[in-house]
Amino acid sequence: MIQSRICEMLGIRYPVFQGGMAWVADASLASAVSNAGGLGLISSVNAGTEAVREEIRKCRQMTDKPFGVNIMLQAPNASEIARMVIEEGVKVLTTGAGSPVKYMKEWKEAGITVIPVVASVALAQKMQAAGVDAVIAEGAESGGHVGELHTMPLIPQIVDALDIPVIAAGGICDGRGAAAAFMLGADGIQVGTRFLVAKECTVHQEYKDKILKATDISTTVTGKSQGHPVRSLKTPFSKSFARMEADPQVSPEEILAFGSGALRKAVKEGDRNGSYMSGECAGLVKKEEPAKDIVEDLILGAEKVISEFASRLV
Question: Cβ neighbours of residue 160 under 8 Å, at least 6 residues apart?
Answer without folding.
Answer: 185
